[in-house]
Design a protein that fits this description.
The structure holds two protein chains of two kinds. Chain A is an all-beta fold. Chain A has a single domain (4-115), classed as Sandwich (Immunoglobulin-like), CATH 2.60.40.10. Chain A is 0% helix and 50% strand. Chain A is built from no helices and eleven strands. In chain A, the strands form two sheets. In chain A, strands 2, 4, 5, 6, 9, 10 and 11 form a seven-stranded mixed sheet that branches. In chain A, strands 1-3-8-7 form a four-stranded antiparallel sheet, with no helix packed on it. In chain A, a hairpin with a 2-residue loop joins strand 5 (44-50) and strand 6 (53-56). Chain A is globular and about 40 Å long. Chain B is an all-beta fold. Chain B has one domain: Immunoglobulins (Immunoglobulin-like, Sandwich). Helix content of chain B is 0%, strand content 53%. In chain B, the strands form two sheets. In chain B, strands 2, 4, 5, 9, 10 and 11 form a six-stranded mixed sheet that branches. In chain B, strands 1-3-8-7-6 form a five-stranded antiparallel sheet, with no helix packed on it. Chain B is globular and about 45 Å long. The chains are: A mainly beta, B mainly beta.
Chain lengths: 116, 113
């Protein structure tokens, strides 16, 4: 089945120690998104890639970076994690840009990040 | 500024009865609305959507109603089943170019057998 896969499912890192979360997709979708979701809150969009074009949300901290080396993979790098970065991180894909196609997003199961 | 609001954090319904989940939005420019379902330890999965040119969309047991004048949409599940127990997120987006999807905070539905 075509899907969005996130690794690892659970990640523990130390305060200030860089961490990378991984997302892969077999849907061959053009757009890949990273969301941060904290308990009882709405998913918050951090950034997205449309093909190779990177689009950062205005309120995404500089501490968060992303890479998309090819269509299938996208990474979320947190350069110096703080306690406030503990959250569920969700990767999603869509065939085309929201607003152009009215296509739903397909989500992975998320990576729960804990900061010690 | 929470543009999409789900004011009920939780809802309990007896199996076989109707579940009604509500969502309010503040931006009249939203023109596409979606509902996602999320089980514990899984990502959200798309459930049903509706365009602003419609006021109702039905898919099996699931029906979404849109009231644009009230800036309100609702998801009806009939009949409710224990497997429907999950968190339901309402989401909205604009047309034209890239516009991010704005999510609500979710409503946890529990269907009691």
């Amino acid at each position: 089945d075509a899907m969005v896969i996130q690794n690892p499912r659970y990640q523990v890192t130390q305060f200030g120690k860089p961490v990378t979360l991984s997302c892969s997709q077999t849907l061959n979708h053009n757009v890949m998104y990273w969301y941060q979701q904290k308990s009882s809150q709405a998913p918050k969009l951090l950034f997205h890639y449309y093909d190779k074009d990177f689009n950062n949300e205005a309120d995404t901290p500089d501490n968060f970076q992303s890479r998309r080396p090819n269509t299938s993979f996208c990474f979320l790098d947190i350069r110096s994690p703080g306690l406030g970065d503990a959250a569920m991180y969700l990767c999603a894909t869509s065939r085309d840009l929201v607003g152009l196609s009215n296509q739903p997003q397909h989500f992975g199961d998320g990576t729960r990040l804990s900061i010690l | 500024d929470q543009q999409v609001k789900q004011n009920s954090p939780s809802l309990s319904v007896q199996e076989g009865r109707i579940s009604i989940l509500n969502c309010d939005y503040t931006n009249s420019m939203f023109d596409y609305f979606l509902w996602y379902k999320k089980y514990p330890a899984e990502g959200p999965t798309f459930l049903i959507s509706i365009s602003s040119i419609k006021d109702k969309n039905e898919d099996g047991r699931f029906t979404v109603f849109l009231n644009k004048s009230a800036k309100h949409l609702s998801l009806h599940i009939v009949p409710s089943q224990p497997g429907d127990s999950a968190v339901y997120f309402c989401a909205a987006s604009f047309a034209g170019g890239y516009q991010k999807v704005t999510f609500g905070t979710g409503t946890k539905l529990q269907v009691i057998p």
